[in-house]
Amino acid sequence: MDALINVPNLKHHPLAGFTGCLKSISHANDTIMEGPDRFHRNACNPYIADIYAIEAIRSKVRLQVMNSLVGIFDRGAYPPLPKFQWPHNAILLGVDPVALDAIGAESVDAARAEAAKRPVRRDRRALRYLETAAERRLGQCRPDHIQKVAITIDADGGP
């Protein structure tokens, strides 16, 4: 395999806080590893970053395409229930998996706030893997270092 396009979903994770680009690769059951559950201790930190940082994995991922047409703001690790979903109506594209996860986690937090759930960022353990991933030079997690470009497509398919 020469390259990999990662296509994660936008969803909450009860332990890590968020499942997106990094966790979909590091904890993909029966694809790159067997039994990813053993890496759930400490809110999946540093495991998510350490597994993604393995050169044989990291060097192959070229593009992140996050499916966020419908997001899951609670209990994302389980089959999603409609009451925990919201229409996000977006597709997030990028080459920086840490930045996309930081943006996705903010979207999940906003949906959780609207549904009167506790924001993910209030749990001090949740999302620490993003800081670890940034320390491992996998990407940027600080909002002031992330460049966002929004393209809106009308219902008729035009910009």
Would you kindly provide a written description of the structure presented here, covering whatever features stand out?
With 159 residues, this protein is of the alpha/beta class. It has one domain. The protein has helices at residues 21-26, 47-52, 55-58, 97-114, 128-135; strands at 4-6, 9-11, 61-72, 85-94. Strands 1, 2, 3 and 4 form a four-stranded mixed β-sheet that branches. The longest helix has 18 residues, at 97-114.
Summarize the topology:
Layout: E1 4-6, E2 9-11, H1 21-26, H2 47-52, H3 55-58, E3 61-72, E4 85-94, H4 97-114, H5 128-135
Parallel strand pairs: 1-3, 2-3
Antiparallel strand pairs: 3-4
List keywords for this structure.
single chain; 159 residues; alpha/beta; four-stranded mixed sheet; 5 helices; 26% helix; globular
Largest sheet: 4 strands, mixed
The count of domains is 1
Helix content: 25-40%
User: Using DSSP, what is the number of strands?
Assistant: 4
Task: Give a short overview.
26% of the residues lie in helices and 18% in strands. The chain has five helices and four strands; from the N terminus they run ββαααββαα.
